[in-house]
Amino acid sequence: MEIKKFTLGPVFTNTYLIYDKNTRRAVIIDPSFEPKELLSTLKLLNLQVDAILLTHAHFDHIGGLQDVLKVVTPKVYVHVQEASWLQDATKNCSEFLLGFKVVCKKADVLLSGKEVLKFGNLVFRVLHTPGHS
């Protein structure tokens, strides 16, 4: 498993690209604003993105989601308690903190915690850790 970290957007949010260099399958975690470097890396490494995992749905963790989905079309995963935040600029805090609305497509998969997600050789255990959002 390879992990690349990108620090993106106006508040320097960490976005992660996790991939298997043998199978070329990948997962993106928290695609923030201005994901040009992330998208270039996907192309350069010829990666197939199987999923986008959102640790939570604040604007800085979803700000680049729509731009990424213009290039790749994986399923988007988010916790059930924050699913509506993707379409609600008040809940994701963009309307007040940025002065413009961040609105994204609905998530494909809603999580509750304790799930085990498998994407090729990549395995993730979902832990519900409420508090920040």
What is the overall pLDDT average? 96
Number of strands: 8
The number of helical segments is 4
Biggest pleated sheet:
6 strands, mixed
Could you name the ranges where pLDDT drops below 50 across 5 or more consecutive residues? none
Question: In what order do the strands lie side by side in the largest sheet?
Answer: 1-2-3-4-5-6
Shape: globular
What string, H for helix and E for strand, traces the elements in order? EEEHEHHEHEEE
List the helices and strands and how they pair.
Blueprint: E1 2-8, E2 13-19, E3 25-29, H1 36-45, E4 48-53, H2 59-62, H3 65-69, E5 75-79, H4 94-97, E6 109-111, E7 116-119, E8 122-125
Parallel strand pairs: 3-4, 4-5, 5-6
Antiparallel strand pairs: 1-2, 2-3, 7-8
Features:
133 residues; alpha/beta; six-stranded mixed β-sheet; two-stranded antiparallel ribbon; 4 helices; 31% strand; globular
What can you see in these coordinates?
With 133 residues, this protein is of the alpha/beta class. 17% of the residues lie in helices and 31% in strands. It is built from four helices and eight strands. The protein has helices at residues 36-45, 59-62, 65-69, 94-97, and strands spanning 2-8, 13-19, 25-29, 48-53, 75-79, 109-111, 116-119, 122-125. It has a six-stranded mixed sheet with strand order 1-2-3-4-5-6, covered by helices on one side. A two-stranded antiparallel sheet has the order 7-8. Strand 1 and strand 2 (13-19) form a beta hairpin. The mean pLDDT is 96.
